[in-house]
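User: Hello, can you help with two protein structures?

Assistant: Certainly.
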Amino acid sequence: TQYVSALQERGIQISMTENGDPLENAIAERVNGILKEEWLNSMTYSGIKDARAKVSEVVTLYNTKRKHSSIAMLTPDQAHLKTGGLARCWRSYYKKEANRKDVYV
């Protein structure tokens, strides 16, 4: 496609799923949306170095300060460090079938 060609010509890494289906990478799509909506869209950038620094800062905030209802109001860092079980507070979009792994429904 023209979009892919334009990215390749500029040496930009393509971050799309193999089939172009966002459901194949739903968690990453959700996180990217949160980062943009809650922080990045309202920021201004003086250049690529500044943009990279701000993205790094926002990812750190997301992982260390932002509590998530899907993980019992813990931050992602707290959830990853927690020993023992973690109550499942999210909705499953998968359906198990006998002859397949996880399938979207």
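That covers the first. Now for the second protein you mentioned:
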Amino acid sequence: MLQPWPDLDPLLGQAAEQFGTPSYLYVVDRIGLRLAELEQNFGQWFRLSYAVKANPNPALLAWLRGRVPYLDVSSIGEVRRAIRAGWPAAALSFTGPAKRVAELEEAIAVGIGELVLESVAEAEAANTIAGVARVRQRVLVRLAPDHVPKGFGDHMAGRPSPFGIDVEEALEALPQIASMQHLHIVGFHIYSGTQSLKSAAVVENWRIFLAQFRRFCDLIDLEPERLVFGSGLGIPHHVGDVPLNTAEVAAQIAEDLEQFRQESRFADTEFLLELGRHLVGEAGVFLARVLRIKPSRGAQIALCDGGMNAHLAATGQFGMVLRRNYMLHRVDGGEPCAKYDLHGPLCTSIDRLAAGAELPSLAPGDIIAVHSSGAYGPTASPMNFIGHPYPRELIAEGDRISDATPWTT
């Protein structure tokens, strides 16, 4: 179990005092606990692939090297960042619906592990480039199922989508790709739902994956080296969220996976569990300092030095249908006794970290800690908007905190 953030207040206070605010603190010991939990529950079936887009901090990528076997990258920039952090190109899969020709050329040139193909047109482009390079490029074909169970925060199935080849089209598309002489299909990839906290939904979704993997491996007579399960495993962000029980997921899917493995076609297949936020999200906290308290028409507004520019997701502008506060607390807090609206420094009304948050009495200088901030933080935020300082990024291992900020501030 991960330690509650208020229990780590001495570490949070040290980070704010030593490095200032706004800042992110990534506690890698918490990632280690999550890795141990995933290994205990899924290790008998799956190896892990970390989705770099969740948090591409270079120092974090370096720390993950040797702890996670694979990375999934979504741009040539992430390819370069991973290689600079010490990852071999062969450990990377490159996904994304609109890869530029130059990106495909560079990825193939550096020896990318697999290209994840999202369309026949992309396959044709990759085949041409690989032919010029005189290589046979390993590829995974991304499939887009025709439905996804209820219980996911977002989904990419059963509706028009830029992601993957619709299963309705795959009967025609896959033989075309399989015939391309400079591409080697090594397996399939499905990622059709995100941020689920419901074990039954995750299990049902993975059963859809298994059915589609079986169907299309049969179609092109493929004994796959690798099948990628886009996990969709969520984390609690809001008060009242119940954490996903991964042991329950494992128990419910075990028979399906064991039966699948017993089929001769999949006896030697490597199953990858691709995940981002579930691995690193709960290991991060966003720290912002209260600058002023402003009473306004019956509300108490706490004006903070970091807001939407530094943490878009916490303001509800990152795909949320209903705006809900992230869990947060006052560092070295006390019992809640008042309600506050927390606003950042931007000249826009949508720069609001929380509305009606129940907190101890706040005063200028207090530090607010926003939980579950280890994923989709700085790089998913409009840091250049209105020109405020970029947030710092810090890494804590044990009681040692180091500055891991990659930005020019």
